[in-house]
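Q: Can I see a sequence and its folded structure?
A: Here is a first one.
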Amino acid sequence: MKFRKSFVTNSSSSSYICDICGAVESGFDCSVDDVGMYECVVGHIMCQDHLKQRKKDASIDDLLGTLHKNITRYNKLLQEDQTRDNTSYVEKWLTEAEGDLVIALSLNKDDGNDKYTIYDLCEKYDLNCNLPSSQCPICKMEVISRNNIIEYFLKNNNTDREKLALEVKEKFKSYDDLCEYLKNK
């Protein structure tokens, strides 16, 4: 099976790898949300368990930021006449998003009923796949991704993957020897 970091539209199966713990989730024609993971706007993918703030606790500021960004983007597309045959769809979406923005501006995050509305709006505007960097534990440097740890090690030791792989191959006669060494360290 091939592992892909993000959704691939021409594939019948998709796999997602958590950038924090390396857990792999996969399925057929699934999105990151379908397998119980999140993706931040930078592209970090993580298991839901790694988030201190779940989407139910998403901040109104994050929701407002997403709405403003999308409304601005769609308005720009309309002004530049880049919507092609989708002009009516974009205009309908803009009307709906502007209405949701009015609702979002009136929300009180401390009110239990409003939290459900925030959750619904976050779901509608896909904050699972566009988790704001303010809620991403990697972007906030609360945890370091597995990849960044390796890249830091390589740079800090003035080496690269190929040199390190060669060193490992020279030091160990078998895969079992390498695993035993790693287990005992």
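Q: Show me another, different protein.
A: A second, unrelated one:
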Amino acid sequence: MTSHEVIFLPKIPPDQLALFRIFYQKYNGILYAHVRNIAPRFPDLQEDILQEAWIGLLPYLSQIAEKTEQKALAYLLTAVDHTAERLIKNESIVQKPIVSFEELKKDVSSGPDDLLDEICASESARQIAQTILSLPEDLQAVLYLHYICVMCPAEIAKHLHLSRWSVYKRLQRGKSLLIQKLQEEGSDVVHEKK
């Protein structure tokens, strides 16, 4: 028994264990070579792709067993392809973790060596960041991620676990409040953008 099989054993219903072992011994080497071939730029994901594919295939093994060997292999390879596509897409969307929003709030008012000096290249960006953090809390993260961290609404929705609709509405409401607040402060930033 390989280390891969040990990972799967607790997830396999007892009645399918024998069938899984047959498929695993017969096809795992082929599937692993296929994963290495289709995802060479993602070596850290290769085993995850294979494991997720096997887990997804478990409920269908008895049906696959009824197919010819050629059709069974085609089905297995297709399942691996779909799993790889899904995991690689998720990996590509995920950004490097950003600093927590609470840390960003603290850093806005700290000295010249703070995080915002790295994020905000200009004084106007710093002023916008400080103004964003003075707005209602439900708008702060969305506006900050959009205007300072330059994230698109879809990325923000995923990052904050919100619907895209919520992000769009918060951006719309937040933008008008932000402009209003900057105008009240007599900021040159509003005039620069026009």
